[in-house]
Design goal:
CATH class: Alpha Beta
Strand order of the largest sheet: 3-2-1-4-5-7-6
Distance between the termini: 41 Å
Number of strands: 7
Largest sheet: 7 strands, mixed
Helix content: 25-40%
Shape: globular
Length: 246
């Protein structure tokens, strides 16, 4: 069962299913909803500047031909727009974080996309509950970790005890990509824990799949400056957030 099929199975059951519009072709379809703009949106002009610069980098300066040549690499690594990998690389090039964190290693595409364009001395730490070498279709190899610029840590950051174990690391995060379970539970718990972190530098955060049914309420109610970048990211939703300390 593919990741998309697992998501569809989890979120599509409780809602009314609609037929695909006549004549529309797509590899997969998932339910979402169109809503009016927020009544009191936060000022997101800084995010707009970051997003514009990142999109320029993604269009002109990002090349994944070396990663795409790996035996197990998925074809969607180089799809842009529609997928978020080039956007993530563009954001890393613009923001130049010393520490980038990913929640949800999966096959390793996002981790490698970010690692390739991290600044000198920068590092990517990716979290999952499954070790990278236990994922059957991973494109990661042991050599990817040899230079110390990529590290995987195991643990569910939706668990308070696990989060506390990595609190010191969290304080240094400058760019955070969240590609968790999208189950309308994990994201709320993580948000609550993040509010207790004294970040050394308020991070820029990217949420994946923000237009999935199970993510609509979370994204809508997220109380920070934010920007919907779906047209330049993942077709199932990409959200850019500027963290603010409470």
């Amino acid at each position: 069962m593919t990741i998309v099929e697992k998501i569809r199975e989890r979120i599509a059951g409780p809602i009314v299913q609609h037929k695909r519009p006549e004549g529309v072709e797509a590899h997969w379809c998932l339910p979402t909803m169109v809503m009016s703009p927020e009544i009191r949106p936060r000022d997101s002009r800084k995010l707009m500047e970051v997003a514009l610069a990142a999109c320029r980098e993604a269009a002109q300066g990002v090349d994944f031909s070396d990663l795409a040549a790996r035996p197990n690499c998925k074809r969607w690594l180089t799809v842009w727009p529609g997928e978020h990998y080039k956007l993530l690389a563009g954001l890393v090039r613009v923001l130049r974080p010393k520490l980038a964190m990913e929640i949800g290693t999966a096959e390793g595409l996002s981790a490698l996309a970010m690692k390739k364009y991290m600044p000198e001395g920068g590092k990517v730490v990716t979290f999952d509950i499954v070790a990278w070498n236990e994922i059957g279709d991973t494109i990661l190899v042991q050599q990817d970790f040899a230079d110390g610029r990529l590290e995987q840590r195991l643990g569910d950051l939706g668990d308070r005890d696990v989060f506390e174990k990595h609190r010191e690391l969290m304080e240094s995060v400058e760019f955070l990509f969240i590609d968790g379970p999208k189950d309308n539970d994990f994201e709320w718990k993580l948000l609550g824990y993040l509010k207790t972190v004294k970040f050394r530098k308020p991070p820029i955060i990217v949420f994946d799949d923000t237009r999935l049914w199970s993510m609509l309420k979370f994204w809508r109610e997220l109380p920070y400056p934010k920007l919907d970048l779906t047209s330049f990211g993942h077709s199932s939703g990409t959200g850019l957030v500027q963290w603010e300390q409470d």
